[in-house]
Specification:
The complex is a heterodimer of chains A (271) and B (381). Chain A has 14 helices and no strands. Chain A has 271 residues and is mainly α. Helix content of chain B is 27%, strand content 33%. In chain B, a hairpin with a 2-residue loop joins strand 9 and strand 10. The C terminus of chain B is likely disordered. The chains are: A mainly alpha (271), B alpha+beta (381).
Chain lengths: 271, 381
Amino acid sequence: MKKRLSAAPFAVWMGIFTVVPMAIVLWFAFTDENGAFTLRNIAEIWQYSGTYVDSIWMGALATVICLVLAYPLALSIARKAEHVQRTMVMIVMLPMWMNFLLRTYAWMSLLEENGLINHLLGQIGLHWSIINTDAAVVLGMVYNFLPFMILPLYSVMAKMDNRVIEAAQDLGSNNWQILRRVILPLSAPGIVSGVTMVFVPAVSTFVISKLLGGSKYMMIGDVIESMFMGDGCNYNVGAALSLVLMVLMLICMSLMRRVDNGEDELGGMMA
Amino acid sequence: MGENKIIELKNIAVSFDGEPVLKNLDLSISDGEFVTLLGPSGCGKTTTLRIIGGFVEPDEGDVFFDGKRVNDLPAHKRTVNTIFQRYALFPHLNVYENVAFGMRVQKKPNDEIKETVARMLKLVNLVGFEKRSVSTLSGGQQQRVAIARALANNPRVLLLDEPLAALDLKLRKDMQTELKNIQKSLGISFIYVTHDQEEALSMSDTVVVMNNGEIQQIGTPQDIYNEPKNAFVADFIGESNILDGVMIQDYLVEFFGRQFSCLDAGFEPNEPVDVVIRPEDIDIVEPVKGTLTGKVTNVTFKGVHYETIVDFKGFKWLIQTTDYYPVGSVIGIVLNPEDIHIMKKSEYSGMFGDYSSYSEEFDELGDPEAGLAEDAGEGEE
């Protein structure tokens, strides 16, 4: 009874800011402008199926790049002396103290046709047209979301018992075998939460794609934003788009989890 | 026990952050020998074990396996396996896969793995636990998995780092017997690290007593107990009354102003020595018949015997006796030549053996948790 009572503030919070808005999204998604039930909004979404695929693809790409960059980094931080670890984690978090929008604007001016990078490249006679491409958007995602991959990986790895690694070594494992048979499976929870924390905001971002991807609606986030802001706004289609995005992301995440669990079992059997 | 030396450590020195941990350590271990490294926490015993296991590289000196220098050989290429403090089982694998780990790494065929795991689990009495997750096992069961996992690799030498420290007394005793039996039946060398002198005495062929990064004495359990080399060993192994004496001549020692015949020889005439008298060797007699008389100042009932503290001219002796002498009574004692052990003076002379501070010392010895807390510290070595 007491436990339930102490959870009450959170329950109220959840009710007001999560359950009710979700219900509103649902209601908008399945009604027309007069408030009558309709499936037309959902049907209209088909025209954006390409954008959905692009968004998920770019989000997935950014997530994979983040994972590949973050994993060895997190591992090397976790194996350093404790005071070095603290400093390095600080450095990882440092960019997050700056405003997200500001960081992305900074990249914009760096990557521009006449930006700093091209200015420097120009000195040696090169030019790199990257602004307003998918690559620029993925770069922006990786830059912005990398800390969200590093931190959960690091916190799992820092808790890993060094004696377990020594035991693997003792039983004849070389460094690669230790990584594959011990460190990788033990860090799986960190991988899952890191991937979740990067993939979800990456797929639904609209700021990064807007600033670095140019004027076209590259990501589904941009489309959703346009449905709520500006001239052609349509709350009902916007809500339906959001709803479908939510469902798609849930499917992606549960697939990911299944692969992860499956690998665990497979790893167990083959290990 | 084979006479060929399987492991030799020569002039090993190690320091961590400028603190010397091992100084000039020489040690050799025979094939099939059960060797125990015994000492208080921080004495360097775990570091010695980690040098043999390949986890610590000595700053100076050489490590030999079968006469071959292996200083630079990494842990995973050594034919030794370790049982770690608190087991270090793989939490993501079940019992079967934990035991199979070493063989998987070596890419052994599945049939062989299956056969070996079954044999190992039988050896440690864990048949039927194959599919269990290691986190659901009790401490004793986890310990058995750790033993099976290490032995499944077919090591020439098994290193055991305080393997029983986390178990309760009863289980510890059972596991001592079991480990000794396993060692005998496999015929491989065990190098066993412990701070528990009783464990060391009851299991080992050879005991290596260490303190402050140096070996104090190497010998059979009987040697170590009956002929301690210095006051540290005498005090650390069992209980001892250690007093100042003078070796008048061979087989004659003087202390408390009296001369006693003893079994020791080979000292300079009139050489100052430490005299060790074990509390259980002292015979209590009527005051008039005793060679020394003293007054009882403290009595504690211990079950098997009474721990009686007796004041002899200001020096307090511990005497273990099955007869009860109340506090304040005056008793006499008789010392036979075989009860008196003579040691050369050492840096430890005068540091141990007076039971004036008896009760505190016993609190510490009687409290297994105190020992555990020290272990945790030692892991950092």
